[in-house]
């Protein structure tokens, strides 16, 4: 069986490589979920900030100021499990957002040689694109 360094892999080799990458991305998202679920109450407070404050902009420092409203809005849940489920959803979605850079690096860097033959895993710079002549 050919190794990935040779540039030739069998169909099952590609599936094995895909499985490894999906497992790595799943682990990264799981770690992000655990981290964000621990802080889901603070994240929920951050999400509720526009509802409970007036945002004012100025040209001097501080450029953005939050003034609390007189009436504080709260969330009302209609089912017993809704508060827990909302914290789970906040943790999961913010965990995905937190781990997107790591997941893209883990899953995308090795596909670059397939997209750009002869380049290897080097990033594409703006100098590699042909320049158009300006009128």
How would you describe this structure to a colleague?
With 135 residues, this protein is mainly alpha-helical. The protein is built from four helices and two strands; from the N terminus they run ααββαα. Strands 1-2 form a two-stranded antiparallel sheet. The protein is elongated and about 65 Å long.
Secondary structure: elements and pairs:
Blueprint: H1 11-38, H2 40-52, E1 53-57, E2 64-68, H3 82-108, H4 112-115
Antiparallel strand pairs: 1-2
Keywords:
135 residues, mainly alpha, 2 strands
Q: Considering DSSP H and I runs of 4 or more, what fraction of the residues is helical? A: 40-55%
Question: Proportion of β residues?
Answer: 5-15%
Q: Which stretches of 5+ consecutive residues score pLDDT under 50?
A: 124-129
Rg, rounded, reads 23 Å
Cross-sheet strand order for the largest sheet: 1-2
Q: How many strand elements?
A: 2
The 3D shape can be described as elongated
Task: Look at the helices and sheets and give the structural class.
Answer: mainly alpha
Question: What value does the average pLDDT take?
Answer: 80
Number of helices: 4
């Amino acid at each position: 069986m050919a190794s990935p360094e040779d540039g030739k892999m069998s169909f099952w080799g590609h599936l094995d490589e895909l499985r490894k990458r999906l497992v790595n991305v799943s682990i990264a998202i799981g770690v992000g979920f655990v981290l964000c679920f621990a802080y889901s109450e603070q994240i929920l407070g951050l999400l509720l900030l526009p509802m409970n404050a007036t945002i004012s902009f100025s040209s001097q420092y501080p450029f953005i100021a939050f003034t609390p409203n007189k009436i504080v809005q709260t969330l009302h849940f209609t089912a017993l499990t809704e508060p827990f489920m909302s914290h789970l959803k906040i943790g999961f979605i913010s965990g995905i957002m937190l781990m997107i850079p790591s997941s893209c690096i883990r899953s995308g860097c090795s596909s670059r040689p397939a997209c750009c033959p002869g380049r290897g895993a080097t990033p594409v710079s703006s100098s590699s694109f042909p320049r158009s002549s300006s009128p």
